[in-house]
Design goal:
The complex is a heterodimer of chains A (about 220) and B (about 200). Chain A is mostly helical and about 220 residues long. Chain A contains ten helices and three strands. Chain A has a domain of about 110 residues: Arc Repressor Mutant, subunit A, CATH 1.10.10.580. In chain B, strands 1-4-2-3 form a four-stranded antiparallel β-sheet. Chain B is elongated. The chains are: A mainly alpha (about 220), B alpha+beta (about 200). Chains A and B meet through helix 2, helix 3 and helix 10 of A and helix 2, strand 4, helix 5, helix 8 and helix 9 of B.
Chain lengths: ~220, ~200
């Protein structure tokens, strides 16, 4: 029975291969490679020019954005004055605080942070289990809420869940969509320590919320 | 149709063209859910009207779903939200238009060769093989910079050291025409017509 099943899958693959070779798109790979190696650069470029239908897009500034920029410019103190307000007299580069420093500065308490993290993890578990797919949830669907500050906080806490291994981030490169899962995505290395950037900006958050997809 | 209805449709067509043409994010185009939100449930009908209008201007509307260029009616309704819509030039650009748009001839040659090579291998090839082919005519640094740039822009896709045809190539480039033109191109080292003729029927 197993042998029959294997023979049938071989025949299926052969059928696919024959169909592909018979299709109008099939060209012998070696012929193409040889032609690429032999053709002058100009002819290759010309071939692309004749088969290319570029995407059309515009980039322009709106009068409203120009007004905002003018307001910003008018309000901006001269560079020397801004330097003078810096305690060290030097312009400080943007830096970052880790959790320990935030606790020391009494901006957050360690207890409060742990509670929020636990609540968020519980919510993530429930929402993934209850999601349509049952195994993952779109990053935006989980992190975006009606309040922008709360959205940023949720994004921040979610990074902790991911770095602690309580959740995983799966990025679909084709759709440019990020998903949160509870299980390590297939093919992801257990030892890999790569980082992925998921940007959140106010404009996209606003579009999402206005689109009626808020949680 | 009342005047109000006609005015509303005109308003939606204008809104659709703004959404499709104005680049707001790094990647061009608009997702189906954004169009639905802005134009309403029946947005594909608005897009049909828009397509007719822009056709007269030498432009066309394209849709990419699951990395493949498709017609709207070929995409299941529940998947339309994820499809990406954008406007493309209906005909190819002239050489001078392309040059003034910032593409150098050698960059175009690298892209043409990479796409034709990957395409002839059923849409995927190891990056190393593509690099080796391109290095025959271009220095290593140029090959690396260009391949990375084409991956960033969506013309190619890289996964586990394999290169694939990207969504943008499927949207913008008529791959069959490209391959045929490359096969018909004269050789640098004398005529290579015999090579093209050896192509199996």
């Amino acid at each position: 029975m197993e042998a029959l099943s294997q023979i049938s899958s071989i025949i299926h693959l052969q059928k696919k291969w024959i169909a592909y070779r018979a299709s109008s798109l099939y060209v012998d790979p070696l012929v193409v490679e040889l032609k690429i190696r032999l053709a002058p650069q100009e002819k290759l470029a010309e071939a692309l020019e004749k088969s290319w239908h570029p995407i059309v897009s515009l980039q322009h500034i709106t009068p409203q954005r120009l007004t905002e920029a003018m307001d910003y410019w008018n309000r901006l103190l001269p560079f020397k004055e801004r330097l003078a307000t810096s305690p060290s007299g030097e312009l400080l580069e943007p830096g970052s605080f880790d959790l320990e420093e935030l606790v020391k500065l009494q901006i957050v308490s360690a207890e409060e942070f742990k509670d929020r993290l636990n609540d968020l993890q519980k919510e993530l578990n429930e929402r993934i289990t209850g999601s349509e797919e049952g195994s993952r949830i779109r990053y935006e669907d989980f992190v975006y809420v009606a309040d922008f500050k709360e959205t940023i906080l949720r994004a921040y806490l979610t990074t902790f869940l991911i770095s602690e291994g309580d959740a995983f981030l799966q990025v679909d490169p084709l759709e440019e969509e990020a998903f949160l899962t509870l299980r390590r995505p297939e093919g992801a290395s257990k030892t890999s320590t790569g980082s992925k950037v998921v940007a959140i900006n106010h404009g996209e958050w606003e579009m999402y919320i206005e689109g009626g997809r808020q949680v | 149709m009342s005047n109000d209805d006609a005015a509303e449709i005109q308003h939606k067509i204008r809104r659709a063209s703004q959404l499709l043409l104005l680049q707001r994010q790094r990647s061009p185009g608009v997702k189906g859910w954004e169009l639905r939100r802005a134009l309403g449930k029946e947005y594909t009908k608005i897009l049909d009207v828009l397509r007719t209008e822009i056709n007269g201007l030498g432009l066309d509307l394209k849709v990419i779903h699951n990395n493949v260029a498709k017609k709207v009616e070929e995409i299941p309704e529940e998947d339309l939200d994820k499809a990406r819509f954008f406007v493309v030039m209906k005909g190819p650009l002239t050489h001078s238009e392309l040059t003034t748009s910032g593409w150098r001839i050698d960059d175009l040659a690298v892209l043409a060769a990479a796409i034709a090579y990957i395409n002839s291998r059923r849409g995927k090839a190891p990056r190393k093989q593509v690099e080796e082919l391109l290095r025959e005519k271009f220095p290593r640094w140029k090959v690396d910079i260009n391949l990375d740039r084409f991956i960033r822009r969506g013309y190619l896709l890289e996964d586990e050291e394999m290169l694939f045809i990207g969504w943008r190539t499927r949207a913008e480039i008529d791959q069959k025409t490209l391959t045929n033109l490359i096969l018909a191109a004269p050789s640098e080292r004398g005529s290579a017509d015999d090579v093209a003729e050896s192509q199996p029927e």
